Amino acid sequence: MNVLNLTSKETSPPFELQVRALEERGIDCTTIAVPGTVTADSGRSVFDYLRFHPTVLRESFGSYDLVHANYGLTAPFALSQPRLPTVLSLWGTDLDGELGWVSKRCANYCDATIVMSERMKRELGQDCHVIPHGVDFDLFEPIPRSDAIDRLGWDPDAKHVLFPYKAEREVKNYPRAERIVDAVRDDVPNRIRLQTAREVPHSEMPAYMNAADCLLLTSDREGSPNVVKEAVACNLPVVTVDVGDVRERLEGVTPSEVCRTDRELRLALASILDGGGRSNGRKQAEAISTDRMAARIHDVYRDVVDRSA
Q1: What's the pLDDT tens digit per position in 226-237?
Q2: Rounded CA separation 39/15 (Å)
């Protein structure tokens, strides 16, 4: 099977992992990314997307079985080509963000749509497949905390709370995380450091996950945040607001907590930092393996191709 992938960000680790896992199943994947650059302050321009269209149209006449639009804003271009069936994957902000209407409208015309969580399925309001991004268990695995602390040069006597994004990403709500950690300083005798993951290569994130005492997620919205699944794979306890599929991903994972209010976040974080243990997350993580993800996407591809034959 030959698949033409369209994506807004070819270097996205979850997307790269998806492509690699599908290729290991014998699927040939060709990727076209939207031109232009994205920064913390700006996204791609309308002109970038206009330049994307002729490239997609020209490539679609190659020997492909289907086109897979990864992220909602690539869907109009997948649908504009005249000959290939279309699969659409929605990642989260492309559904509940300000341009979510584009994703919803395009999903009506795609041959199959994949979302990351049951919550996204309810938001989409139509038939679709729930297939969250998988996690590379060979990369994200438990290692001794002392080794990770030494590698990063963190204070070995402090408690480290990991905010796994850049502080500038507004949707991730760093000010709320900072507020919670400041409040918890009165509840825990140890020094507490709030660590951010600014410009951290994905290959280095396992060290952060293993050096930290807890992952704190305060995002305003998420689809299926991979950082939570990566933390689970490293046995890192998680304290998070109730967004995306985190409640499903953390079912049975202890210690970890899904919270609604600042008070709940504070109590949960203080309890985990005071307890000082790791979670049982890796034992609960079979559902987020890359093999399972790739197998389910492959099933979607087969169904779409069979129906279009």
Answers
A1: 999 999 999 999
A2: 19
